[in-house]
Amino acid sequence: MDQGNTAADSPVRTEPLVVVAAVVVQDGRLLVVSKKAAPGIFYLPGGKPDAGEDALGTLTREFEEELGVRPLEPRLLADVESIAALEGVPMRMTVFEALLSGTPSPAAELAHMRWVSGDEEGLHLAPAVRDHVLPLLRRKGVLA
């Protein structure tokens, strides 16, 4: 008799979730976005690579799909290890710095887009942004 899947049958994630994102800073403020699935949590724009897609390909595709712009002059900023805010699993995020090809506008799975200093009251940032990216940007002196 089939009992269906049990927790013991479920695959266990051994590798961290892979994400590619970019820091876009204009006038001392960081571009952050939230997803429709969690509109109150803000992330860096970006996403998960498709099969066989490299980091810059992922970044370009995600920016075009979600913001309607292309990342310009992307350069590697850091690799960040944290917990994915939505999935609650270990995550490895490759973070680039980039400029934008135009004016971004949220589309696809995005709920909101904001330019922030990171100090706004009530702003809920994903752990990777709050604990790793913001301190790095502050040390570099690029945030207002």
What this model shows, in words?
- With 144 residues, the chain is an alpha+beta fold.
- The chain has a single domain, classed as Nucleoside Triphosphate Pyrophosphohydrolase.
- Helices cover 19% and strands 38% of the residues.
- The protein has two helices and eight strands; from the N terminus they run E-E-E-E-E-H-E-E-E-H.
- A four-stranded mixed β-sheet has the order 5-1-7-6, with helices on both faces. Strands 2, 3, 4 and 8 form a four-stranded antiparallel β-sheet that branches.
- The longest helix has 14 residues.
- The chain is globular, with a radius of gyration of 16 Å.
- The termini are far apart.
- The N terminus is likely disordered.
Helix fraction by DSSP (H/I, runs of at least 4):
10-25%
Alpha carbon gap, first and last residue: 63 Å
**Envelope shape:** globular
Instruction: Please state the second-level CATH architecture.
Output: Alpha-Beta Complex
GO molecular function: 8-oxo-7,8-dihydrodeoxyguanosine triphosphate pyrophosphatase activity; 8-oxo-7,8-dihydroguanosine triphosphate pyrophosphatase activity; 8-oxo-dGDP phosphatase activity; 8-oxo-GDP phosphatase activity; metal ion binding
Organism: Streptomyces nitrosporeus
Keywords: DNA damage, DNA repair, DNA replication, Hydrolase, Magnesium, Metal-binding, Mutator protein
Catalytic activity: 8-oxo-dGTP + H2O = 8-oxo-dGMP + diphosphate + H(+)
What are the main properties of this structure?
single chain; 144 residues; alpha+beta; Nucleoside Triphosphate Pyrophosphohydrolase; four-stranded mixed β-sheet; four-stranded antiparallel β-sheet; 2 helices; 8 strands; 19% helix; disordered N terminus; metal-binding; DNA damage; NUDIX_hydrolase_dom; mutator protein; 8-oxo-dGDP phosphatase activity
